């Protein structure tokens, strides 16, 4: 069983930045990433990163968000810049290692 604990969400003004962190209880996870969900809509890919450092981003965040991982700390990060009100959502950490694992979610609100 893999446990994922997110942190770093909050309220930010449009154009601002936030950094999310997700600490995993297990090392050597093949895939780590972030998804987000807005009430009434389907869960959306934000970004993923492999153990080799290959990244994949959702179209709506390309050029604004950056995913990274620190394998020594079993942690994945999401640096979010140029935030827009449409980025408001609950952000979920995701891990894959023979099964899919999800964190509890952290709220990100972009509003003036």
Overall form: globular
Count of DSSP-assigned helices = 0
The computed structural class is: mainly beta
Rg for CA atoms: 13 Å
> Per DSSP, what share of the residues sits in E-state strands of 2 or more residues?
over 45%
Distance between the termini: 40 Å
Topology, number of strands: 11
Share in helix: under 10%
Unreliable stretches (pLDDT < 50, length at least 5) are: none
Overall pLDDT level: 95
Task: Provide structural commentary.
The chain has 112 residues and is mainly β. It has no helices and eleven strands. The chain is globular and about 40 Å long.
Summarize this structure briefly.
0% of the residues lie in helices and 53% in strands. It is mainly β.
From the structure above, extract its key features.
112 residues, mainly beta, seven-stranded mixed sheet
Write the layout of secondary structure elements.
Blueprint lengths: L3 E4 L2 E3 L5 E7 L6 E7 L6 E7 L4 E3 L7 E6 L4 E6 L8 E8 L3 E3 L3 E5 L2
Parallel strand pairs: 2-11
Antiparallel strand pairs: 1-3, 3-8, 4-5, 4-9, 5-6, 7-8, 9-10, 9-11
